[in-house]
UniProtKB/TrEMBL annotation:
<keyword id="KW-0812">Transmembrane</keyword>
<feature type="transmembrane region" description="Helical">
    <location>
        <begin position="131"/>
        <end position="151"/>
    </location>
</feature>
<dbReference type="InterPro" id="IPR046513">
    <property type="entry name" value="DUF6691"/>
</dbReference>
<feature type="transmembrane region" description="Helical">
    <location>
        <begin position="59"/>
        <end position="81"/>
    </location>
</feature>
<protein>
    <submittedName>
        <fullName>YeeE/YedE family protein</fullName>
    </submittedName>
</protein>
<feature type="transmembrane region" description="Helical">
    <location>
        <begin position="102"/>
        <end position="125"/>
    </location>
</feature>
<keyword id="KW-0472">Membrane</keyword>
<keyword id="KW-1133">Transmembrane helix</keyword>
<feature type="transmembrane region" description="Helical">
    <location>
        <begin position="21"/>
        <end position="39"/>
    </location>
</feature>
<dbReference type="Pfam" id="PF20398">
    <property type="entry name" value="DUF6691"/>
</dbReference>
Length: 157
């Protein structure tokens, strides 16, 4: 019996609802914090993004670079110590190789970013800040996600 199975067997069966509520509250608070950081760091600012694309300011490159470093550290830690809250191991599978998926995905992402003026990450943050035209961006993102699901089998992966 593994350590995770022993912990699951030792835990009372009726603790799942409060544990789930605590987890959801944690995710909500982390999301609100992340949204606040995006707004305060101006990562959701159309002007900052335009400055980045025009190479007029280092601000966004610094933010993106710090996000890449944070992601690298997080993936290292997940691969090394990754467990769910119940103790089950998290498996991070390697990405498939091939250039088509990255070229076409990057083009689709870049065109959407250019048309909307923001990447998809801060859509809800901007809605929360009262930028109501982001409803059009959200609807377009959902439509694009649906279209991908429909055409996935015919796309180069």
């Amino acid at each position: 019996m593994t350590a995770a199975q022993r912990r699951a067997a030792a835990r009372p069966a009726d603790d799942s609802a409060p544990r789930q509520a605590t987890g959801l509250l944690t995710y909500l608070l982390v999301g609100v914090y992340f949204g606040t950081v995006l707004v305060k760091s101006e990562a959701a600012s159309w002007y900052r993004i335009q400055e980045m694309f025009r190479f007029q300011d280092f601000h966004m490159f610094g933010l993106i670079g710090s996000a890449v470093v944070t992601g690298m550290i997080s993936m290292f830690l997940l691969r090394r110590f990754g467990q769910t809250r119940d103790g089950a191991a998290i498996q991070v599978s390697p990405k498939e190789t091939g250039w088509k998926r990255y070229v076409f995905g990057g083009l689709a992402f870049g065109v959407g970013w250019g048309l909307a003026g923001v990447c998809p990450g801060p859509i809800f943050v901007l809605l929360g800040a009262g930028v109501w035209p982001m409803l059009i961006v959200l609807a377009s993102a959902l439509l694009g996600t649906y279209a991908y699901g429909v055409w996935r089998g015919r796309l180069p992966h």
